[in-house]
Structures are given as structure tokens and as C-alpha cells.
From TrEMBL:
GO terms for cellular component: outer membrane-bounded periplasmic space. It holds the Pfam family 5_nucleotid_C. GO terms for biological process: nucleotide catabolic process. Residues 20-154 form the 5'-Nucleotidase C-terminal domain. GO terms for molecular function: hydrolase activity. Coiled coil: none annotated. This is 5'-Nucleotidase C-terminal domain-containing protein. InterPro entries: 5'-Nucleotdase_C, 5'-Nucleotdase_C_sf, 5_nucleotidase/apyrase.
Length: 200
């Protein structure tokens, strides 16, 4: 929804040709949609904050630094240590909402590596992202204003800021679509690795 909204918002502008990526964080580990009718309450449980949608312009180098910062969320995993999902996250007390995932590119997070050296294979449409490549990145206003301390986004050029409330946009999207089908939007954009091999 964020990607499509920003793409439409950039139509007819000088930045319309930029690839659009989207940042989101897992606000709730318990939000689920059981089979059957989906209510407004279900949607509100998925996105619990009154954030609005924005987009900023970032370079490939800035994206990499952003993702490295986000990857601090994972504890470093020693060779041969069991990969216990319950013990893998929230390193240093980092809350779930300060772990950002990026869609529109693919990348690996190597949890065997120290913080700052974890993101590998950052690619867009099958090609390695170059340092000077430019992207429009959908982001919420909390993050863009500095929430969580993520790098670059507070000083990046703002490309889109139509004061669209993300939670309402999700509700509108679901209402217009009629059916929420993960096959229509779910993508495996990133994975966890250890020394270059898939962790799970």
C-alpha cells in the first residue's frame, strides 16, 4: 500500500522515474487475520499508531547504512550455536518497532557478523545497488522525524507528504480490494544468514 500510494503521488513530478521502496516495522507480534471477514479493529491492530505516510530520497549508500542500523536488532550468533528465534531478536533492548524492513530490494542480514557489517547482497531487480543509485523511500512521519535514531532520513529530501494516515490507507486498501490475499503482496525480500548460509 505504501509503495503504490507513493508511486501515484510522484506521478508527473521530476522524481516519478525513481524506484519506490517501502520501510515498515513490526508493530505487533500478535496481530493476525483469521480466515473470514476482516474488521476495522483487525486492521487497527496491525497498525497501531497514527502515523502519516511520507517519502524521502536516499542513495544506495544511505540505504545500506540504514539497514545496518536496523540490523542491530539481532543478537550476534556464534558459529554452531543453536538458532533460537526467541533469543535472536531485541538485542540491547531494541523494541520490535525499531526494527525496520525494506521492501523493493533484496538483502541478507548475516547474524554471525558484528553490528555494522551484517547487510550483504543488497540488490534491486536482480542487480547490486550502487552507492550513488537513488530511490524514493516510503516511510512514516515518526521515523522521518528521527524516531528511533535511524540515519539519513531526517535530512533527506522529502518527495511526498500528503498527510495520508497509514492506518486509514490500509483500511481503505482492504475495503477497495475486498480480499486480503498474501499471495498478492507478500515477498521474501530479505533473509537471515550465518556466515553466508541461510539461518532457517
Amino acid at each position: 500500500m505504501q509503495t503504490e500510494t507513493v508511486k501515484k503521488g510522484l506521478e508527473g513530478t521530476a522524481d516519478a522515474a525513481l524506484p519506490v521502496l517501502s520501510i515498515s516495522a513490526p508493530f505487533s507480534r500478535s496481530a493476525v487475520f483469521p480466515a473470514g471477514p476482516v474488521s476495522v479493529r483487525d486492521m487497527a491492530g496491525l497498525y497501531i499508531y497514527d502515523n502519516t505516510l511520507m517519502a524521502v530520497k536516499l542513495t544506495g549508500a544511505q540505504l545500506k547504512e540504514y539497514l545496518e542500523y536496523s540490523a542491530r536488532y539481532f543478537n550476534q550468533l556464534a558459529p554452531g550455536a543453536p538458532a533460537d528465534p526467541a533469543a535472536l531478536t531485541n538485542a540491547g533492548g531494541i523494541p520490535d518497532y525499531n526494527y525496520d524492513q525494506l521492501s523493493g530490494v533484496t538483502y541478507d542480514i548475516d547474524v554471525a557478523k558484528p553490528v555494522g557489517q551484517r547487510v550483504t547482497g543488497l540488490s534491486h531487480q536482480g542487480q547490486p545497488v550502487t552507492d550513488d543509485q537513488q530511490f524514493a523511500v516510503a516511510i512514516n512521519n515518526y521515523r522521518q522525524a528521527g524516531g528511533g535514531g535511524f540515519p539519513h532520513v531526517t535530512t533527506a529530501p522529502v518527495l511526498y507528504n500528503a498527510q495520508v494516515e497509514i492506518r486509514q490507507a490500509l483500511i481503505d486498501y482492504a475495503t477497495a480490494t475486498g480480499t486480503i490475499d498474501p499471495a498478492a503482496f507478500a515477498e521474501a525480500d530479505w533473509r537471515l544468514t550465518r556466515d553466508g548460509r541461510p539461518l532457517f
